[in-house]
Amino acid sequence: MMRVLHLGKYYPPVPGGVEYFLADLLSALERQGIATGALVHEVGVASTAGASPNDVGPTVYHVPTLGRFFYVPISPAYLRWLNRCILEFRPDVLHLHLPNVSVFTALLSRRAQALPWVVHWHADVVRSRVDRRLAFAYHFYRPLEQRLLATSAAVIATSPPYLQSSDALRPWRQRCTTIPLGLDASRLKAPGARETTDAERLWGRTGLRVLSIGRLTYYKGHDILIQAMGMLPDARAIIVGTGDQASRLNALIRKYGLQDKVTLWGDATPAALAALLASCDVFCLPSIERTEAFGLVLLEAMHFAKPLVVSDIPGSGTGWVVRQGGNGLLTNPGDASSVASALRQLGENPARRVALGRQGQEALETSFGIDAIAERVADIYETVLRTHPQNLQGT
């Protein structure tokens, strides 16, 4: 049996699109007959390593951390844990999910260098126009990033536009393959009666119900959605997530007098999220930079047959997802009037909302199901192992 160890940043219940995708992918690979493990950061100093009951399912190792600095988990013991995991789990392939500074320690591990590497390129470290510190930090990050890519056997990009626009991947395009993110729809349970009642109470008796989900961080564009809501007399928005922009966004809501129209919900349980997704009219992703590379949450909204209003970020996969599904309207990044116009169009045409939602559901089944995505990833592993001078350790 093939064995693959994934190096990720975090793992559920830590929320995030890459985190949920990683968990979905590992389970789908297990169904393909591949033994999977993951080395991720613990949120805090505790450390655990465990498997599913009866050793069925992914094995997840959590490296203790000392907190975060500049979006980066601080894990001095990561190299030791990496060597330990390779020794215990005996992988045939390392699957590295980037961006993640900690995975650069693989360049220092003889055990890691003895294995073939598949790099999953979730996003560039973008030279942000909003957070200028990233441009400075990238000067130190890029040499390690390029050395890691040079060592890799294969690279997976999540959409054709992202691959074509990535300066970092340009020297390595001959080893790149495009495989989109996928969703395990069975993970999204139908909301219960209590959560449904709570969601209805939260929406209130309003017109268009607009939902947005994501970390409250600089590139998500939630301020753009808030400004757009000020242009819509009969609409209400709920923004789910936590992050460093929460105070600024709350101040913006007060500044525009939108306390009755926009709610920052904070964290929500999976059941509460399902109820909000099921009861909204439109899902909006107003991100403004290529750091938003794909948007797994778009697939979750598609599962609930919701039309999308999404920023068409140049060089990002967000617009590509909508074009593939034919299930939403695209807006100009950073343009509140453009977002308001798209929401207004859908608010005035309920039949169109239903039709777009159905198209999204169909696209999810045909193009973004996690089992089909896992099958393509497994093919990458097979190809890599055929060209790498080693025998399967797990057989």
List keywords for this structure.
alpha/beta, Rossmann fold, 2 domains, eight-stranded mixed sheet, six-stranded parallel sheet, 14 helices, globular, transferase, Glyco_trans_4-like_N, Glycosyltransferase_grp1
How would you describe what is shown here?
Helix content is 40%, strand content 18%. By secondary structure, it is α/β, with parallel strands linked by helices. The protein is globular and about 65 Å long. It starts with a strand and ends in an 8-residue tail after the last helix. Mean pLDDT is 91; it is low at 49-54 and 391-395. InterPro entries: Glyco_trans_1 (IPR001296), Glyco_trans_4-like_N (IPR028098), Glycosyltransferase_grp1 (IPR050194).
Structure, briefly:
The chain has 395 residues and is α/β, with parallel strands linked by helices. The protein contains 14 helices and 16 strands. The chain has two domains: 201 residues, Glycogen Phosphorylase B (Rossmann fold), CATH 3.40.50; 182 residues, Glycogen Phosphorylase B (Rossmann fold, 3-Layer(aba) Sandwich).
SSE map:
Elements: E1 3-7, H1 17-31, E2 35-41, E3 48-50, E4 59-63, E5 68-69, E6 72-73, H2 78-89, E7 93-98, H3 110-113, E8 117-121, H4 133-151, E9 154-157, H5 160-165, E10 176-178, H6 193-203, E11 208-213, H7 222-229, E12 235-240, H8 246-255, E13 262-266, H9 270-279, E14 282-285, H10 296-303, E15 308-311, H11 318-325, E16 328-331, H12 336-347, H13 350-367, H14 370-387
Parallel strand pairs: 1-2, 1-7, 2-4, 7-8, 8-9, 9-10, 11-12, 11-14, 12-13, 14-15, 15-16
Antiparallel strand pairs: 3-4, 5-6
Helix pairs in contact: 1-14, 6-9, 7-12, 10-13
Protein name: Glycosyltransferase
Pfam families: Glyco_trans_4_4, Glycos_transf_1
GO molecular function, one term: glycosyltransferase activity
